[in-house]
Amino acid sequence: MEGFAFDMWMWVALFFVGVAASFINMLAGGGSILALGLLTLMGLDPSVANATNRIGVLISTASGCAAYKSEKRSAIRESLKLSLWTIPGAIAGAFFSISISSELFEQLIGLVMIFILVTLFLPKRKGTDHEPFLNGILMYPALVLVGFYGGFIQAGVGFLIIGALSHLGGMNLMQMSMHRVFIVLIFTIPAVVIFIASGQVNWTYAIVLSAGNAIGSWFTVKLAIKKGEGIIKIGLAIAILLMAAKFLFLK
Fold it and tell me: pTM of the full predicted structure?
């Protein structure tokens, strides 16, 4: 009986962590660190926790996309065009994640996050007419690499999408946020198929986590649209600092 009560409390905690993780993910990214931390604390092997969390990410992004569409803030054709570039990388990354350590990769991503944070608050420089064209070309291979990282680790992939869409695609934060959720949804689908086929998903935990993810995503998108870019920028800055600290200093 005591064991059952303990499990119930852990499931409740996992549900609310799912809500919190989606709140962070919808505003910026990095919320998966919360879910992965609790899943490993609940006794899952890191690789199983990684795979289990992908179910929550899939449900979370589907809920977020539905919320954007309900507010008439979706551009499905453009989002799909961007998303397709991430799929090959996501498939390769998911297979890669099964056996490769991510320690050095995480440190590099931590440095990238700091760079994104600094450049986010710098005034945009007016350049030549050729720069937008060049950046537009560079954005697509960058999305392939984004897909690889998303399939590999997932946690923090939102920051890389921000870098690709904001700095190379020239999008504002609201456009970038809308596309980012759809992109993660699309490249998560093949990754989830691979993880399910490998038998690494704990379905009980995945269902509980996904319930919290769905609720958190829906209401966070509504809040972001109501409050505008200000709340997105604040959430982005806080999430980047937390993720960078985790990757660089907290081992």
Answer: 0.74
